[in-house]
C-alpha cells in the first residue's frame, strides 16, 4: 500500500487518503468486522482517546471540544465499517484474508477487480482524520462506526443510545457531492426456500452464462433500467423450453441481495439430437436481447459450453416450471414512484441472490420503500406467491425509513457553508437507498441528521470508483461546518 499512497500523497489533505489506504488493507466484509473494529480500537488507544466497543463490535471514539466550543452540543460523525465484497469473475481475491489492491487512475481510486469499499470506508477515513487533527477547531466529537450495515444494519439496531451525547449527526454514507440527504427509504430482506423434486435425464450437459450486465446498488441504481441477470436468464430458459427437450441441473445468479445481479448461469441436460440447434438458438437469443437492451445494457453477452454426453440428476419438469414461474412472475424492480418528490422511487425490490442448493431453490430479495405500509405489502405479495408454490419463507432485517424533518439547524448550516465555500447551492434530496439514519433517529428522536459524501461511481460493483478531489472538498466542508458550530 505504500506505493499507492506515494501516488496519492500529493493529493492528500489532513491524512484523509492516508487513512483510506490504511483501512483498505484491513479485510472488512459484512459479517467479518473483527479486524476493522480492532483497528479502530487501536487507533483510539494510540491517540489517547476514549472509546466504546460494544458486543456487536460497533466502535465510538470520543474527542473533547477545543477551547471556545465546550458549551456546544457534541457532534456525531457516523458511518459503517463493513463493505460489500464483490469481485470480477477472473479475480482470485480472498476478502476474508486479503486487503484491497488499490489503483490510482488520474483523479480516481479503484480496486483491482473488486469493490472498493468507498461505501463506507470514506466515512471511517473522515472520522479518523478529524480525530487526529490537533489544529481543527470543533465541538466535542463522537465518531460512530457501526457494523454490518450492508446486510441488515445490525450494528445500528444494537446501538445503545446512551453512548451518544451528540444531537447533531453527520452521516458520511452518500455518493454525490453537492447533495445533502435528508430522508431515505426503509427496507427488509425476504428469503424463500422452494423444495425441488429431481429425476434423471440422458444427453449432453450445456452450460449457459449471461454476463456483461452493469449490475449496481439495488437502491441507488434500481430506477436506471439495470437488467437483472437472473431474470434475463430465466426468460431465456423459458423461451428455449418452448422449442427443446432439456432439464436444468443447476442455476444461480447474484452474490448480494442489495446488488443487482450482473451475471447468472445455468447448466442443463439437452438431448444429443437437439444440442446443436439449442446452441444456435442461444446465439439468436443473444442477438435479440442485445438489440432490445442496446441503450441500457450494451455489453450483455451469452456464452454456451457443451460437455460430453452423460446421464445426470436434473430438476423435475414440474419443479423447474415452478422455479421459472417464481423468478419471472414475482415483482422485481421499481414498484411505485413517489407522488411527493419528483423522480424519487418510493418502493422497489430486487432479486439479489438465486441458487439451487441441495434440494432447494433459494431466493433472496431486498425490499425498499419510503412508506412502511407498502414495504410490508410487497413482503406480503412475495409471501402469498411463494406460499402458494409450497415454499418456506421469512422476512427479516427490517429497518425504518428516515423521514424528512421540516426544521433542521444542521441542514440549514450545511447549506450556508456549502454556498460560502463553492458559491453555489447544494441540492436537498431524499433517496431510495437505505441509511442507518432511520434507525438512529428512531432511537434518538431529537437527533438532527444530514447525510453527505463525495462522488462515487458504480458502488457495489467491481467497477466502483472514488473521486479524489471531490473527497477532499467534502472533507473541507465538514471541517468548516464543525468550525461554524460555535
From TrEMBL:
Required cofactor names: Co(2+); Zn(2+)
User: Which keywords are on file for this protein?
Assistant: Cobalt, Hydrolase, Metal-binding, Metalloprotease, Protease, Zinc
- Kindly list the residue ranges recorded as spanning the membrane: none
The UniProt record lists the EC number as: 3.4.13.18
Gene Ontology biological-process annotations = proteolysis
Family as reported in the entry's similarity comment: Belongs to the peptidase M20C family.
Superkingdom, according to UniProt? Bacteria
Q: What species was this sequence derived from?
A: Lachnoclostridium phytofermentans (strain ATCC 700394 / DSM 18823 / ISDg)
Q: Please tell me one Gene Ontology term that the record gives under cellular component.
A: cytosol
* Reaction catalysis annotation: Hydrolysis of dipeptides, preferentially hydrophobic dipeptides including prolyl amino acids
Q: Name one GO molecular function term.
A: metal ion binding
Question: Peptidase M20 dimerisation domain spans which residues?
Answer: 211-293
- This one is known as Cytosol non-specific dipeptidase
Which Pfam family, giving just one, matches this sequence? Peptidase_M20
Amino acid at each position: 500500500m505504500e506505493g499507492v499512497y506515494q501516488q496519492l500523497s500529493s493529493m492528500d489533505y489532513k491524512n484523509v487518503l492516508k487513512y483510506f489506504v490504511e483501512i483498505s488493507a484491513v479485510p472488512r466484509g459484512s459479517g467479518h468486522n473483527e479486524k476493522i473494529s480492532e483497528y479502530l480500537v487501536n487507533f483510539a488507544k494510540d491517540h489517547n482517546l476514549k472509546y466504546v466497543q460494544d458486543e456487536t463490535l460497533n466502535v465510538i471514539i470520543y474527542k473533547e471540544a477545543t477551547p471556545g466550543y465546550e458549551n456546544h452540543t457534541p457532534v456525531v460523525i457516523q458511518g459503517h465499517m463493513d463493505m460489500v465484497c464483490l469481485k470480477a469473475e477472473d479475480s482470485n481475491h480472498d476478502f476474508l484474508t486479503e486487503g484491497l489492491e488499490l489503483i490510482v487512475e488520474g483523479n480516481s481510486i479503484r480496486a483491482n477487480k473488486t469493490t472498493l469499499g468507498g461505501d463506507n470506508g470514506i466515512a471511517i477515513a473522515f472520522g479518523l482524520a478529524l480525530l487526529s487533527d490537533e489544529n481543527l477547531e470543533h465541538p466535542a466529537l463522537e465518531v460512530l462506526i457501526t457494523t454490518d450495515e450492508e446486510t441488515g444494519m445490525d450494528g445500528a439496531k444494537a446501538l445503545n443510545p446512551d453512548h451518544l451525547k451528540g444531537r447533531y449527526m453527520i452521516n458520511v454514507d452518500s455518493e454525490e457531492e453537492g447533495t445533502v440527504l435528508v430522508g431515505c427509504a426503509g427496507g427488509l430482506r425476504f428469503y424463500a426456500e422452494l423444495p425441488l423434486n429431481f429425476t434423471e435425464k440422458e444427453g449432453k450437459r450445456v452450460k449457459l452464462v449471461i454476463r456483461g450486465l452493469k449490475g449496481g446498488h439495488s437502491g441507488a441504481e434500481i430506477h436506471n433500467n439495470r437488467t437483472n441477470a437472473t431474470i434475463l436468464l430465466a426468460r431465456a430458459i423459458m423461451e428455449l423450453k418452448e422449442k427443446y427437450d432439456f432439464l436444468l441441473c443447476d442455476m444461480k445468479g447474484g452474490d448480494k441481495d442489495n446488488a443487482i445481479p450482473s451475471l447468472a448461469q445455468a447448466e442443463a441436460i439437452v438431448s444429443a439430437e437437439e444440442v446443436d440447434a439449442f446452441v444456435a438458438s442461444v446465439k439468436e437469443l443473444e442477438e435479440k436481447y442485445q438489440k432490445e437492451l442496446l441503450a441500457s445494457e450494451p455489453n450483455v453477452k451469452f456464452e454456451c459450453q457443451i460437455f460430453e454426453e452423460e446421464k445426470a440428476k436434473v430438476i423435475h419438469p414440474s419443479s423447474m416450471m415452478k422455479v421459472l414461474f417464481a423468478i419471472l412472475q414475482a415483482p422485481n424492480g421499481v414498484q411505485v414512484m413517489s407522488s411527493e418528490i419528483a423522480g424519487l422511487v418510493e418502493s422497489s425490490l430486487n432479486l439479489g441472490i438465486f441458487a439451487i442448493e441441495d434440494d432447494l431453490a433459494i431466493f433472496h430479495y431486498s425490499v425498499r420503500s419510503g412508506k412502511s405500509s407498502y414495504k410490508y405489502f410487497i413482503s406480503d405479495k412475495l409471501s402469498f406467491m411463494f406460499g402458494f408454490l409450497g415454499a418456506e419463507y421469512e422476512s427479516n432485517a427490517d429497518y425504518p425509513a428516515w423521514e424528512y424533518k421540516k426544521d433542521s439547524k444542521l441542514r440549514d448550516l450545511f447549506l450556508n457553508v456549502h454556498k460560502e465555500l463553492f458559491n453555489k447551492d447544494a441540492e436537498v434530496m431524499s433517496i431510495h437507498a437505505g441509511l442507518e439514519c432511520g434507525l438512529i433517529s428512531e432511537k434518538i428522536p431529537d437527533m438532527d441528521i444530514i447525510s453527505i459524501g463525495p462522488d462515487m461511481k458504480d458502488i457495489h460493483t467491481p467497477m466502483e470508483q472514488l473521486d479524489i478531489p471531490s473527497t477532499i472538498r467534502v472533507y473541507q466542508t465538514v471541517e468548516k461546518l464543525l468550525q461554524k458550530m460555535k
